[in-house]
Amino acid sequence: MDPDRTNAEGRPAVVVSGVGAVSAAGLGSEALWGAVTERRVLTGPVTRFDLSGYPARCAAQVPPAALAALDALVPAHGSLAARYLAAAALEGLRDAGLPARTRRHRLGVFAGTVMATRPILDQGIGPGRLVVPSDGGWARPEDLLAPLREVVTVTGPAVLLAPGCAAGNSAIAAGCRAIAAGEVDVAVCAGVSELSLEILAMFTSLRALETGTVRPFDRNRRGTIPGEGAAVLVLEPAARVAARGHRPAAQVLACAAAADAHNPTQPHPEGNGLVTTLRGCLDRARLTADQVDWVCAHGTGTPASDGIEARAVARALPGPRRPVVSSLKGQFGHAEGAAAALEAVIAVRALAENLVPGNVTLVEPDPDCAGIDLVEPAGRRTPVRVVLSQAFGFGGGVSTILLGRANGATTR
């Protein structure tokens, strides 16, 4: 088996040939990684609309300068999410060394979100009421993909997935399957989300919002803060990338999904779905728990979820050392449909830079999370060869991806 051309199951290896992002750090994956290395916390008061009637008024917003810069990149559209997606796709294809406008290869789009063009729902929000617009505009997936189609020639399938906050990883898995099946040569895999009154109203009703700082795995964590953005991983068969002389950024070693169907909004108390996906990824890649250098956690900062996640990771990855874990939501908030994809872009860069990002807002680790090795706020300079990145969605859905160095060097 050639690890650069085939995976552990003997199928064509899938590599990440490019990445793109729009986030609270601004436009581009470099801005995103810069915020990670500078340990900037990007949550703060919402300025885009009035939240005077809400108890929690913070979010991680795409900054105004980045919004203005979109005008030179992508067409105007009623949904910022649609424009975020198009901009991230353009960057990802440029990073991959691929033209955005060509019919020389089969390019498919696999985009994950929570509720498509969600801000249209905001039209129905009022005091004590929520009315869904009668024209059903919020549910039209073509609206979310329209600006992307204007700047990228899509010659393969265009698929919109809505598995909740596991969306980004689910999109990556769908792209991998399409490449393995020979349906596409290039898969643009994305997660996307836009800040809106609707999502803030939903989290407020669930009493899940933090009014200050998100503190994943901290003893005094109190809730999460919404975020927004889009991120893209451009996937291709390893052999195709090698043939055109491009250097891939990472390899997708395995993907796994599960649903424990325990509760509409809470994971199973034992984290069964997460345990299944973590073990499934390692089994498919034929790796062991001690070969995982970093677990990029879902880590929302909510009182219940983080403890469940910590125990599940410890149970799924037993070995001579505790799993090394950190969450990025203390910096970027919870970007819902975009969260897992943004974290995947950061994981790809962590593999290249040999840096495990820290739990930037961690002050007092929760004793209930003692089974995992929580990375100190400063992060760790250490070899990073294999990363597990996991995401939860409402309804018990879990999606996990396993990323490794593109040269196949995953062993010690």
Q: How would you sum up this structure, described in words?
A:
It comes from Plantactinospora sonchi. Keywords: Transferase. This is Beta-ketoacyl synthase N-terminal-like domain-containing protein. Belongs to the thiolase-like superfamily. Beta-ketoacyl-ACP synthases family. There is one protein chain. The protein is built from 11 helices and 18 strands. It is globular, with a radius of gyration of 20 Å. Strands 1, 2, 5, 8, 9, 10, 11, 12, 13, 15, 17 and 18 form a 12-stranded mixed beta sheet that branches. It has a two-stranded antiparallel ribbon with strand order 3-4. Strands 6-7 form a two-stranded antiparallel sheet. A hairpin with a 2-residue loop joins β6 and β7. It folds into 2 domains: 230 residues, 3-Layer(aba) Sandwich (Peroxisomal Thiolase, Chain A, domain 1), CATH 3.40.47; 154 residues, 3-Layer(aba) Sandwich (Peroxisomal Thiolase, Chain A, domain 1), CATH 3.40.47.10. Helices cover 29% and strands 21% of the residues. α5 packs across α11 and α8 runs parallel beside α9. It is of the alpha/beta class.
